[in-house]
Amino acid sequence: MPDHRTRQHLADLLLEPATAAGGFLDTLGDAPQAGPATGLAQRLMRTTLLPQVYERYWRPVLGRVLKGPGGPTMTGEVESATGLLALRPGHVVLDVACGTGRFTRAFGDAVGPDGLAIGLDGARSMLVRAVEETDSPAVAYLRADAVEPPLKSSTVDAICCFAALHMFAEPERALDSFTRILRPGGRIVLLTSARRDWPPARIADTAAGIISGQRMFDRGEIAASLRARGFTDVGEQYFGVAQMVSGRLPDVR
Ligand SMILES: C[S@@+](CC[C@H](N)C(=O)[O-])C[C@H]1O[C@@H](n2cnc3c(N)ncnc32)[C@H](O)[C@@H]1O
Question: Residue whose CA is closest, atom 14 of ligand 1?
Fold first, then answer.
């Protein structure tokens, strides 16, 4: 259960008041989900069953299928994200679409008790599970829309958004929001879909995206989006139908 000081730290960064509910702060009230529905995958995340099996079975198995045999393990993903964000004690890090908090907890360990790791998600059931799984004085959870996180501008040192950008109704608007929230010099890392180039595979990937309600981004598309928003040191890795893209804002805007 997050402690009072951590939750107050998060409340101080918010643009709007939030209600405290079930161990997390909530800015969505009675709304069943954040933003417009985008399809099957997003709807599944709101069920009560999926969060129970998500971290141990669902994410590792589906992740392996999508990343292919050469992609990183779950531990590897967490290590890559933590490393690419260059997290240090005292940092504020935002884990967008945190699910059950696998990455948020690791970020909490990296930023320590003087820092803050915020896990943001739109699904109540995911956050309930995340709170149950978390025992860190540095972690606080927030129920909010990932496309427009209600955080003050230039308040966050690092943003992670794994396995979710392709589910959002407006991913480009989400990237605008992330850029606004990050401090100068802030870092971002994203793991999302990457449609393959070979034409038959491309057709299959596009069809799978339509059926599951998830956007299939092209290779290079996310990197170009980050560069267009002023990010530098943009790094890209591709495995299977996934891409991990990172970048850093200049020290002075
Ligand atoms: C596949 S999970 C990813 C969880 C975690 N980041 C990981 O890599 O395992 C996607 C998460 O995105 C959340 N999500 C989808 N659309 C959202 C939105 N518009 N706002 C907030 N959360 C959203 C879902 O509730 C779900 O928990």
Answer: 97
First CA to last CA across the chain, in angstroms?
A: 37
Neighbour tally for 18: CB within 10 Å: 20
CB 19 within 8 A of CB 11: no
What tens digit of pLDDT does each residue of 183-200 get? 999 999 999 999 988 888
pTM: 0.94
Atom of ligand 1 nearest to the CA of 38: 16
Q: Which residues contact 190 (CB under 8 A, 6 or more apart)?
A: 160, 161, 162, 165, 222, 243, 244, 245, 246
pLDDT of residue 2: 58
Name the residue of 26, 27, 38, 42 whose CB sits within 8 Å of the most ligand 1 atoms, as the mutation to test its pocket: 42
For all residues of the chain together, what is the average pLDDT? 93
**Does any ligand 1 atom lie closer than 6 A to the CB of residue 194?**
no
Hey, what domains does the chain have and what are their CATH numbers? 4-248 (3.40.50.150)
